[in-house]
Amino acid sequence: MSGDYLESTQHKYWTFTKNELINIRKLDAPYARIRLFLGEQLNLLGLKLNCRQRVVSTAQVFLSRTFLKIRLEDMNLYLVTATCLYMASRAEEQQLHARIVVREAAKLWPRMMPTETSYLAECEFYLLEELRTCLVIYHAYNPLIRISKEYDLTPDEFQAAWEAINDASLCDIPLLFSPKVIAFAAMFMVLILRPELDGGRTPLAIKNRLDILSVSIGRRSTLDLTQLAYCIQEFLSLYSLMESINRRSVANEIEQLL
Amino acid sequence: MESLDDPMRRYKARRSRRADPLQGYDLLGYIAAGTYGRVYKALDRRHGKVVAIKKFRTERDERSNSTTATASKTTDTTSTNIAWTGLSQSAYRELALCRELRNPHIVSLVATILRHKSVYIVFDYYEHDLLQLIQFHGSQKRQRLPSALIASCLYQVCEGVSYLHANYVLHRDLKPANIMITAQGSVKIGDLGLARSFRQPLQSLFTSDRVVVTVWYRSMELLLGCRHYTPAIDMWSIGCIFAEMISLRPIFKGEETPVLPGARGSVFQKDQVDKVIKILGTPTLAEWPSMRAAPEYPSLASMRHHRRTLNEWHRRCGMGPEATDSLDLLGRLFDYDPDSRISALDCLKHPYFINTEFDKQNCFKHVDYVYPSRRITAVDVPLAGQKRKLPEV
Ligand SMILES: Nc1ncnc2c1ncn2[C@@H]1O[C@H](COP(=O)(O)OP(=O)(O)OP(=O)(O)O)[C@@H](O)[C@H]1O
User: Fold this and answer.
1) Is there a domain that residue B212 lies in?
2) C-alpha to C-alpha distance for B300 and A17, rounded to whole angstroms
């Protein structure tokens, strides 16, 4: 289903301001790095299970929302991660077998992942409740497809913006911004940070494009430029966290929580 | 007893201190058993209103596996004696879609409750459904449905379906039993357990579930094995519902050929096809060019030919020559070619709705009698009893 975003549960119940997120999470200080680490693990599991990007991204959103409702020490975080992927496969009508999810997760996270399938089903049940059974997720991919035509992105730029959207799901961006803002921010990230993807345009061509961008974005009354700026800022802090994170120590941290 | 290595131990301890939301409802009776669960009538004490609670059973699919695992395990690690199993995909869909959809002509969800290893969806309570009205007229009142009621129901159904289609949702199981009506005559489309998004299906809508649409309401392209689902399949079902309101019995009442358990693919529903072509005539390639590509086209081609008798059918239902609008609309809903079949939005603009006198909000407006209330059976088992013992589904 992909009707009117403004009428969606995502917009009504699951979009927050930065301050709201801080208030909800005051107890979970190490959240950002744990979330990033688990998000990367979730991507790996999705890869092992041959999941489509949309399934994995939906799972990432479920994971972020779940952490607004449970505490990090409440449940085995690997079980939670695997369950989010399982639920996303069902919500996106690409159902994986619970048994296979558990088997692959146990291979990926030996000793950490409970091997009994019934735990996955039980966890799914609790998460459905915590998520208030809101299972329809609006991603930034569709808006990106629309604007990439409008702004004439090269295939490489498009690909890079697509990947930026994937990265965004590892942090709070999907909880903070509308899919459209995320798509624009992803595009900007690429245009600003990856000029080599431009495909050898002349300076004049680049300037022309910047003109189109600035004029048309400025004119878009529905695109909030402040939001766009904040979103780009979130992107920048995500990438700096990605570079600085010590994955082994985060893994230990999670083990401590178990 | 909770085991120490339960991966959700702390969460469960916390959760067990929360109030059980089911305690906010008083069970008034039992309404019906559907394919996926049971429906109860209850009083929502907090909002002071009557609701319908649909309780889903959990999937049996994974159970065989996990039950044996639990049984063979030494008892010290079991925290519960029944293994957890997943929810049915149908429950998933209904939860996801009813949460998201909001329209005056779609059943409205009040709450979802996950307790006692079951999923409960709380809906507004609807006093009537279209099947009940049709049956009442057919067996007790023994007279046709008032034309204002037919037009109003059809109009409201089309409004609901055009909302679904605008949101890229196919209902896939439209039939009189799934059309709810409030005591005030407002029509609500229910049972979204088969509904699917068709915007960007990750899989062909065909592969994931084989059984769609009760056979009597199944469109010709589905009967011929087409795998490309479009909103047109819902429009065909609306045509069947329209016809059923006119004649008080299903227009194409075929005998369903059972699908053998474990069989791959679908079976050709020969009797159903026969019932359809006896009234609509054998479809021709001229009226439906892409029919040639349908998997079951050869099966159809080998069947006896029939000419179209829809006009006679319409007349036999007591519809006079003045009812050309109704006949025309019916014909457009039964357009064999899904690509040219009328859409829900276009239905709303059809002359039938302009030339018929009816009320767009209240299908009982011009009706001078009251339909009997929904039959409720008393239940002595509480919805969620003290010993967590719920009525079995
Ligand atoms: N909100 C409601 N108010 C009153 N009665 C209802 C309501 N919802 C459902 N019912 C009754 O319960 C019956 C079964 O509900 P529903 O169709 O949703 O279940 P189901 O398990 O999907 O059934 P099936 O697919 O076999 O039609 C309906 O035909 C209707 O009679």
Assistant:
1) yes
2) 60
Tokens of A175: 């909880």
Q: Is B187 helix (H, G, I), strand (E, B) or coil?
A: strand
pLDDT in tens, B200-232: 554 554 444 545 567 999 999 999 998 878 999
pLDDT for residue B263:
63
Torsion of CA B247, B251, B253, B259, to 10 degrees: -140
Q: Is B39 helix (H, G, I), strand (E, B) or coil?
A: strand
Judge whether A76 and A110 are in contact, CB under 8 Å: no
Range of the domain at B79: 26-124
Instruction: State the Cα–Cα distance between residues A87 and A94, nearest whole angstrom.
Output: 10
CA-wise closest residue to A136 among A170, A165, A93, A86: A93
What's the rounded Cα separation, in Å, for the pair A250 and A241? Answer: 12
Q: Which of A79, A111, A137 is the last residue of a domain?
A: A137
Is B173 annotated as catalytic?
yes
Q: State the CATH number of the domain containing residue A43.
A: 1.10.472.10
CA dist list (Å): B350 to B16, B86, B154, B158, B345: 56, 45, 12, 11, 9
Q: CA B297, CA B301: separation in Å to the nearest integer?
A: 6
Structure tokens at A258: 């178990």
On average, the pLDDT of chain B sits at 85
pLDDT digits (tens, 9 = 90+) for B242-280: 999 999 999 999 998 887 766 666 789 999 999 999 999
pLDDT at position B4: 53
Q: How far is CA A208 from CA A161, A203, B390, in A?
A: 20, 9, 68
Residue A203 gets which letter from DSSP?
Answer: H
Q: What is the CA radius of gyration of chain B?
A: 23
Cα-to-centroid distance, B125 and ligand 1 (Å): 11
CATH code for the domain in which residue B264 is found: 1.10.510.10
| Residue B379: Cβ-neighbour burial (10 angstroms; 0-12, 13-18, 19+) | middle
**Closest residue in chain B to residue A8, using alpha carbons only:** B100
Q: Which chain A residue has the Cα nearest residue B195?
A: A1
Whether pLDDT at B324 is above 70: yes
What's the start-to-end Cα distance of chain B, in Å? 27
| B153 lies in the same domain as B280 | yes
Instruction: Please count the structural domains in chain B.
Output: 2
In a domain, A201, yes or no: yes
* CA-nearest residue, atom 29 of ligand 1: B177
- Cβ under 8 Å to B: A residues 108-167: 114, 116-119, 121-126, 128-129, 132-136
Give nearest CA residue, ligand 1 atom 23: B34
Looking at the fold, whether B207 and B298 belong to one and the same domain comes out as yes
Based on the fold, state whether residues B170 and B305 are members of the same structural domain. yes
